[in-house]
Amino acid sequence: MISRNEAISVEAKKWKTIYPAYLNIKFSAQQGRRVPKSKAVEDPKISEISEVLQFFKIPHVIEMDKAYSRDWLTKGRIKVQILQENGTPTNPEVKNKKLLLSKLGELIPRLKSRTAPQQSASQTTGGKKKKH
């Protein structure tokens, strides 16, 4: 008997693959970046990509034991179901992988995990200094 997780992973083999390197501004196109620098993000994390995919309600599977051949030190990839079996998009806003990568590049910088630490750091440096 095949469990639900095994069934999803069997299906996921047909899904599109996204590696963080596709969105990393530190990488050149030759090194694997797939979006223009204007849409690229500094060091995207698997969890951030997953958070945006959850926002779009796009089915995905995280595979932390896999690595991109051009960036083999960074572990993790995401398998994404962009199209349903009948050929219609799982989300009408995202019709193909290129558009999905573009949306990821736009939304990852807006995540709370990216904006909150910067705000708290700026608040702590603006305080009064202690007198000795």
The total beta strand count reads 3
**Number of helices in the DSSP assignment:** 4
Order of strands, widest sheet: 1-3-2
Largest sheet: 3 strands, antiparallel
**What is the alpha-carbon Rg in Å?**
18 Å
Average pLDDT figure: 85
Quick overview of this protein structure:
The chain contains 4 helices and 3 strands. It has helices at 4-12, 46-55, 97-107, 112-125; strands at residues 16-18, 60-68, 71-80. The protein is an alpha+beta fold and 132 residues long.
Structure characterization notes:
A hairpin with a 2-residue loop joins β2 (60-68) and β3 (71-80). Helices cover 33% and strands 17% of the residues. It has 132 residues and is an alpha+beta fold. It is globular, with a radius of gyration of 18 Å. The chain is built from 4 helices and 3 strands; from the N terminus they run αβαββαα. The mean pLDDT is 85. It has a 3-stranded antiparallel sheet.
Key features?
132 residues, 3-stranded antiparallel sheet, globular, alpha+beta, single chain
Show the helix and strand layout:
Elements: H1 4-12, E1 16-18, H2 46-55, E2 60-68, E3 71-80, H3 97-107, H4 112-125
Antiparallel strand pairs: 1-3, 2-3
